[in-house]
Amino acid sequence: MPENNVYFVGAGPGDAELITVKGARLLREAEVVVFAGSLVDRELVRTYAPAASVYDSAGMTLEETVSVMSDAVADGKKVVRLHTGDPSIYGAIQEQMAELDRLSIGYQVVPGVTSAFAAAAALKQELTLPEVSQTVIITRLAGKTPVPERESLAEIARIGATLVIYLSVAMMEKVVAELLEGAYTPVTPVAVVAKASWPDEQVVAGTLADIADKVRAAGIGKQAIIIVGDVLRARREGLKAKSLLYDREFSHEYRKGIIT
Ligand code: SAH
Fold first, then answer.
1. Cβ of residue 197 lying under 6 Å from some atom of ligand 1
2. CATH 3.30.950.10, the chain: domain bounds
């Protein structure tokens, strides 16, 4: 069994305090840090790993990234591969892990707060509301990375669940057109959160009819999450139903319905 010398760590959405306690500890212990400088806050690396050798993966190929990690492991050093948000969502970690497997280098993955949840927090919005939607779909439009045909946004939009769309704000018109082919209508509420949890976070709210114009007017072209669905309406129009979890009449494993 190879030792765990490489840690893939989710850095969270931006705010340095949103890394996990475990991720911060590993970063403090790291001797080598590889991170995507385009998205992860440099401050985070400076704060937690001031003495580590730091590599910015933004300008590196997969081979280069893997060779930095494997050289460090060969020197007995502890490596943190820092990913934005959670590494499992559009993180391109599988190919790195496959390379490490091939080299018999052990690794572990430490989750992080994905930007979808930072966006929901910015909006003060629950994504799953009783009788509105109990399903959240994380998806994207095809870009340089293709999307399987059966997962095209128009196809996904037929379900009508709460949608969280990554990597697509630069193609807002196309997002809207595809969503209108599904269960959503021009009055379906949409919110766009750019740079969620960063000091320059921006929130734009509207409907499918006007969101593309509003996003353009706000100058948002990248690093944004699009949230779509009727759950967003609940804030303006009140809740349809409350969750049974905290209902006085509803008993469950951990609580008797009526407290005496
Ligand atoms: N692994 C990351 C996603 C990487 S893909 C995560 O879990 O969040 C990059 C995309 O993530 C961006 O195009 C944008 O859609 C989204 N994103 C990353 N950070 C963000 C932030 N702070 N606010 C809003 N969207 C963000």
1. yes
2. 115-237
Contacts (Cβ under 8 Å, ≥6 apart) of 193: 118, 119, 122, 123, 201, 202, 203, 224, 225, 227
Ligand 1 atom closest to 83 (CA): 1
Q: List, run by run, the mean pLDDT of 10-residue segments along the chain (260 residues).
A: 81 94 96 84 85 91 95 96 96 95 97 98 96 96 91 96 98 98 97 96 98 98 96 78 67 61
Q: Note whether 92 and 129 are within 8 A (CB).
A: no
Distance from Cα 48 to the centre of ligand 1, integer Å: 21
CATH topology of domain 115-237: 3.30.950
Residue of 8, 115, 172, 203 to test ligand 1 pocket, by largest number of atoms within 8 Å of CB: 115
Task: Name the residue with the closest Cα to ligand 1, atom 24.
Answer: 224
Give ranges for CATH 3.40.1010.10 in the chain.
4-110
In this structure, whether the domain defined by 4-110 belongs to CATH 3.40.1010.10 is answered with yes
Q: Which residue, judged by its Cα, is nearest atom 10 of ligand 1?
A: 167
Is 139 touching ligand 1 by the criterion CB < 6 Å? no
| Class of residue 67 by CB neighbours under 10 A (exposed 0-12, middle 13-18, buried 19+) | middle
